[in-house]
Design goal:
alpha+beta, 4-stranded antiparallel beta sheet, 4 helices, 4 strands, about 30% helix
C-alpha cells in the first residue's frame, strides 16, 4: 500500500527577508477587439482598471486557492499591460517582507488579470457558433524573483 502524505512546509525558522516576484503572460485577441479596448469602447468598461483590481484581490487570496501557499504579508501588488496588435501582455509584480516567496501570488495576479480581460471582451471574441477560435492565454511564467536580506539598523 502506498501512503500519500501532503503537508505545508514549515517556514517558522526562516528569517524575514525582502521578496519580490514578477510574472507575465499573454492574452491573444482579435485585432478588432484590441481596437475596441484602445478606443475605450468595451461595453463592460475599462478593462485595465477592472483587471488590475481583480489581480490585486487574487494575489491576496492566493493561499485560499493554492493549498500549500502560506498567507504572507503582501506589501504591494501592481500590474502593467502592454498592448500589441493582437495581444495583451500582463505583468504582475508582488512584494513582501516575509519567510517565503511570492511567486505564486505574482502568477495568480497575472493569470487573473488576463482572464478578467477575456471575460470583459468575450462577446467580441466569439464566432457564430459561440466558440473562441482565436482567443487564448499563453506563456504565463515567473520572469524574475528577488530575495534580499534586509539591512539591520
Amino acid at each position: 500500500m502506498i501512503l500519500i502524505h501532503s503537508h505545508m512546509v514549515d517556514v517558522g525558522r526562516k528569517s524575514e527577508v525582502y521578496r519580490e516576484a514578477l510574472a507575465e503572460g499573454e492574452l491573444i485577441l482579435s485585432p478588432e477587439t484590441i481596437q475596441l479596448i484602445k478606443d475605450g469602447k468595451v461595453d463592460k468598461g475599462d478593462v485595465f482598471s477592472v483587471s488590475e483590481i481583480a489581480a490585486i484581490i487574487s494575489a491576496k487570496k492566493t493561499p485560499e486557492l493554492i493549498p500549500f501557499c502560506h498567507p504572507i504579508p503582501i506589501t504591494n501588488v501592481s500590474v502593467e499591460y502592454e498592448v500589441g496588435a493582437s495581444s495583451i501582455t500582463a505583468r504582475g509584480r508582488v512584494k513582501s517582507i516575509g519567510r517565503t516567496g511570492v511567486e505564486m501570488e505574482a502568477l495568480m495576479a497575472t493569470a487573473t488579470a488576463l482572464l478578467n480581460i477575456w471575460e470583459m471582451v468575450k462577446k467580441y471574441e466569439k464566432d457564430d457558433d459561440g466558440q473562441y477560435p482565436l482567443t487564448r492565454v499563453k506563456d504565463i511564467r515567473v520572469v524574475r524573483k528577488i530575495k534580499r536580506e534586509m539591512a539591520v539598523e
